[in-house]
Design a protein that fits this description.
The structure is a single chain. It is built from 9 helices and 7 strands. With 250 residues, it is an alpha/beta fold. Strand 1 (7-10), helix 1 (18-28) and strand 2 form a beta-alpha-beta unit. Helix 1 runs parallel beside helix 2. Strands 3-2-1-4-5-6-7 form a 7-stranded parallel beta sheet, sandwiched between helices. Helices cover 49% and strands 15% of the residues. The chain has a single domain, classed as NAD(P)-binding Rossmann-like Domain (Rossmann fold, 3-Layer(aba) Sandwich). Bound molecules: nicotinamide-adenine-dinucleotide.
Length: 250
């Protein structure tokens, strides 16, 4: 129980991927958690499951990370109902493939705003509390795509590279106030979205190219996030940790 007494917010955590695995793992390690997502019903169902399984407090708070007001409300309600904010995991991120010459403004804005602006909004909303507490840990979700780039995902790759620089910048600003900020860059992690865009044979091919010989599972990422938000990583600051089974070696 390495997170006993801590309060954690995980954005976009009611899906079937990294967010869900992370919020569940943080609760199993003793944190009270906020399951936040645009999908309120799924968030409520998961919060109920977590509470039952772990005995920890688990709140469901709906929030679209693009909406400043909803993000401020997320931080305010967490503080009001759970009394503190120790951990923020900025998990919200989506991709919508389009080549640059065919990309409309809406697609560009959608991907940049969820991945990058949402990360900024959530950090800004929780920082006054963490600064007052003189402690906190933030983990931002980047991607190996932020280093590699990728055809038809220029907006996504730009946002994920932006998260690397944002993470270093914020770490420079707040480390002396007891707040550690890091990022994680997953490789291919199996989820519903991935299953929709890559046929099974394609995934098998990618797995073959990975030194570990498999695509990742959401828990592979959740475990590293747990490390980054806990005291086990007390001297790790401003890093983007690559977790890709060796698909990309940073
Ligand atoms: N899955 C991968 O292979 C992979 C690889 C590299 C990076 N990542 C990053 O990891 C993070 C999690 O990815 P995942 O695929 O596991 O997804 P996930 O299942 O953790 O998240 C999906 C959830 O996001 C929610 N959501 C969508 N738009 C939102 C918004 N505007 N505000 C709040 N919530 C919103 C959805 O309702 C859904 O529940 C993302 O930032 C993604 O870019 C994933």
């Amino acid at each position: 129980m390495i997170l006993e007494g801590k309060v954690a917010i995980v954005t976009a955590s009611a899906g079937a991927g990294i967010g869900r695995a992370t919020v569940s793992m943080l609760a199993r390690e003793g944190a009270d958690v906020v399951v936040s997502d645009t999908h309120e019903q799924r968030a409520q169902a998961l919060a109920g499951e977590i509470q039952k399984e772990t005995g920890r407090k688990a709140l469901a708070i709906p929030c679209d990370v693009r909406d400043k007001k909803q993000v401020e409300d997320l931080a305010a309600r967490t503080l009001d109902q759970l009394g503190r904010i120790d951990i923020l995991v900025n998990n919200a991120g989506i991709n919508k493939l389009a080549p640059v010459h065919e990309m409309d403004d809406e697609t560009w804005d959608l991907v940049i705003n969820i991945n990058l602006r949402g990360t900024f909004y959530c950090c800004r909303a929780v920082l006054p509390t963490m600064i007052a507490q003189k402690s906190g840990a933030i983990v931002n979700l980047s991607s190996v795509a932020g280093w590699l780039g990728g055809a038809t995902e220029s907006h996504y790759c730009a946002a994920k590279a932006g998260i690397v620089a944002f993470t270093k910048s914020l770490a420079n600003e707040v480390s002396r106030q007891g707040i550690r900020v890091n990022a994680i860059a997953p490789g291919l992690i199996y989820n519903e979205f991935l299953a929709r865009i890559y046929p099974k044979e394609e995934l098998d091919k990618i797995s073959d190219q990975t030194p570990l010989g498999r695509v990742g599972e959401p828990d592979d990422i959740a475990k590293t996030i747990l490390y980054l938000v806990s005291d086990q990583s007390s001297f790790v600051v401003g890093e983007t940790v690559c977790v890709s089974g060796g698909l990309y070696m940073h």
